[in-house]
Design the sequence.
């Protein structure tokens, strides 16, 4: 007889399973950023002056496209790999909660808010009356890491955890997690945009505290986009996640809700709101109590030590059932002997339990 042989899956199979588990939009962003980097590598394009986020060019020449082109370009292989590996878990978790179209809208919104914060801080530093500096106005920044810092803030706030691990080395309070990463990256890596990461954190907190809710449309807006013909080929894909759920306000739960005060923004329970927004498992039939049959039930054929004694309501119910059966067929009951009557009573008792 041939023995059972258990073999581990190969690297190709594992990579395929890992890739299939990534939702549609997150995998699309990985493909777009990776493809753009490979094309730039093949053609020898490495200046990025025309597409990077350059505050002076955006303000003086109104090159608004830089806000979005700078996000999908990366300067090195390590840069794009690190950002995409960080995007996969963050983007996958948020996409499963929000849906693919809603997450795309959030990424665009975060990229825009990051750029606004970046421009404001650069302008303040360049034109303040105490010590003006044009360095930030001429800083050329590229990469997806600004949006990643925003996602870190949002995901950490939604998770409700009290602490987070920094590269598996030490734990820090969750509220300081993004700030600790900001300092660590500045100390360990060179040529890192401090302002770009800082603006990502600020945008994340602005989203969490509901400051960007005005720019978040309702669920019907996303449903209309999903039902459009030009997106039908994407919606039919198994990795595409529809924008469905119980949150009709059009944004994922944050500290804020409609008609809340500032104290409510700070003390809100995010995880409770998130749990209520996510689909819930149906309650089993055994856990629900039918008003037509009062009392507590038990499993048939169980041991006597595990049986729950009947309450007064059970006894009264049994008495009513027996009384109701007497006038129906008095002749039949008269014909039933003592032994058969005992069996009839046990049968009625078992039927009531069932």
Sequence:
């Amino acid at each position: 007889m041939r023995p059972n042989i258990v073999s581990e899956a190969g690297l190709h199979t594992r990579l395929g399973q890992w890739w299939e588990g990534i939702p549609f939009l997150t995998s699309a962003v990985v493909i777009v950023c990776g493809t753009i980097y490979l094309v730039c590598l093949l053609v020898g394009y490495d200046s990025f002056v025309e597409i990077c986020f350059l505050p002076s060019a955006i303000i003086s020449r109104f090159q608004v496209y830089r806000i979005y082109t700078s996000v999908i370009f990366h300067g090195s292989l390590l840069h794009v790999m690190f950002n995409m590996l960080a995007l996969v878990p963050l983007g996958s978790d948020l996409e499963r909660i929000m849906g693919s179209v809603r997450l795309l809208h959030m990424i665009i919104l975060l990229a825009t808010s990051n750029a606004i914060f970046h421009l404001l801080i650069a302008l303040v530093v360049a034109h303040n009356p105490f010590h003006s500096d044009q360095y930030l106005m001429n800083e050329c920044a590229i990469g997806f890491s600004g949006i990643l810092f925003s996602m870190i803030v949002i995901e950490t706030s939604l998770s409700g955890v009290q602490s987070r691990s920094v590269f598996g080395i030490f734990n820090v309070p969750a509220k300081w997690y993004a700030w600790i990463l900001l300092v660590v990256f500045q100390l360990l890596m060179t040529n890192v945009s401090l302002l770009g990461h800082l603006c990502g954190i600020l945008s994340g907190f602005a989203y969490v505290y509901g400051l960007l809710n005005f720019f978040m449309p309702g669920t019907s807006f996303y449903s209309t986009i999903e039902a459009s013909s030009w997106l039908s080929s994407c919606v039919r894909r198994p990795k595409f996640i529809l924008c469905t759920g119980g949150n009709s306000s059009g944004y994922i739960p944050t500290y804020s809700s409609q008609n809340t005060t500032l104290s409510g923004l700070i003390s809100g329970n995010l995880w409770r709101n998130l749990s209520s927004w996510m689909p819930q498992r149906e309650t089993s039939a055994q856990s629900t109590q039918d008003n037509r049959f009062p009392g507590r039930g038990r499993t048939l054929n169980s041991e006597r030590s595990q049986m729950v004694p009947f309450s007064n309501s059970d006894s009264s119910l049994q008495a009513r059932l027996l009384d109701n059966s007497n006038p129906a067929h008095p002749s039949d009951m008269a014909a039933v002997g003592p032994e058969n009557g005992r069996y009839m009573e046990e049968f009625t008792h078992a039927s009531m339990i069932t």
Summary: The chain has two domains: 21-277, 304-353.
